[in-house]
Every structure is written in C-alpha cells, then in structure tokens.
Amino acid sequence: MAKQTVPFVVEAEGTGVAQTLTALGDDPHQFRADTLPAFGGADAEPSPLSYALGALTSCHQVTGSLVAKSLGLTLGRWQLRAQGDLDPSVISTGAEGNANFDAVTVEVTLETDATPEQFARLQAETERRCPVTQLFQRSGLAFTSTWSAVPLSA
Questions:
Q1: Which of 25, 59, 29, 37 is nearest to 128 (CA)?
Q2: CA 120, 54, 104 angle in degrees (round to 5)?
Q3: Mean pLDDT computed over every residue of the chain
Q4: Most distant CA pair in the chain: distance in Å?
Q5: Of 27, 59, 48, which Cα lies nearest the Cα of 134?
Q6: CA separation (Å) from 152 to 6, 75, 88, 93, 113?
Q7: For the segment 92-131, what is each residue's pLDDT rounded down to a tens digit?
C-alpha cells in the first residue's frame, strides 16, 4: 500500500529581498516577508528566519494539541518562545561555514491537567510527531526545548 501524503504548496514573487507569498489550498492565504537592513531589507515584514521559528512554535502547538487529545489531556493557554542563534557571516559575506542556525531553543509554558508523567509523554510525543521540530532536529543544529506545566486557569 502506497503511503498517503498531503501536499503543502507556497508560491512567491517579489523584488529585491521583499516577497509576497501565497499558501495554496482551498482557502489560499497570503503573507509577506522582508529582512533586516543588515541583509538588504527594510524590516517591513517578518524575515524568513522569523517565519521558520514561528513555524516551529505553531507546529508545536498544533501537534501538541493533537497529542493531548489522543492522551485524553485537557490543555489551556500555550506560551511559546523560540530563539535561533545565527552566525550571519555565511549569508551576508559568503564566508565558509554553515548558513543554518548554530542552535535553536524552544521554551513552552502550557496550562494543563496532566500529571508530570503525562506531561513528559506529551512533550516527547509532540517533538517526535511535529514535522517542523523534526526539520530542525535532523538538520544537525543544537536543539533544546524546555517545557513547563502550569495549572489550568479557571
């Protein structure tokens, strides 16, 4: 039996370093990207690197919500922070090296009714099943995540 896949397609156009992107599908979504002045942009829109980190946090939340449902856990508010540490010399000056982040850190604070054991399983399963987390982890950079559980708000 052939493995089923779901295509995700983004089309883009632009000039200079600014771009308008369209995520295709039944209900297409448009978004824009730019970059910092140090890289030739006007900083008028999020940079591609900011989008990559945003994709990481939002994929954590989407995947974690699916995992929690399968584990029978109740979740409340998510608070996430992602930081990527980048040596800009490769992209900006063409220096030898790796253009990827050197390290990425994710911090998650999550309202939940999970026991400590259930919460540890939620974190492990979320990171295992999250496609964007896997992109980062398998790229070879130093990946760290810290998850904290807080009681559900009334």
A1: 59
A2: 60
A3: 96
A4: 53
A5: 59
A6: 34, 7, 41, 48, 6
A7: 999 999 999 999 999 999 999 999 999 999 999 999 999 9
Tell me how far apart the alpha carbons of residues 11 and 30 are, in angstroms, rounded to a whole number. Answer: 10
Q: Which residues, in sequence order, are bridge partners of residue 106?
A: 82, 145
C-alpha closest to that of 63 among 152, 128, 154: 128
Sheet of strand 18-23, all strands in order from the earlier edge strand to the far edge: 10-15, 18-23, 29-33
Q: Which of the 8 DSSP states describes residue 128?
A: H
With 0-12 / 13-18 / 19 or more C-beta atoms within 10 angstroms meaning exposed / middle / buried, residue 118 is middle
**pLDDT score for 1:** 84
CA distance 106 to 136: 11
Q: Give the burial class of 64: count Cβ atoms within 10 A of its Cβ; 0-12 exposed, 13-18 middle, 19 or more buried.
A: buried
Distance CA 95, CA 153 (A): 50
Three-state helix/strand/coil letters over 52-108: HHHHHHHHHHHHHHHHHHHHCCCEEEEEEEEEEECCCHHHHHCCCCCCCCCEEEEEE
Query: Which comes out higher in pLDDT, residue 54 or 154?
Result: 54
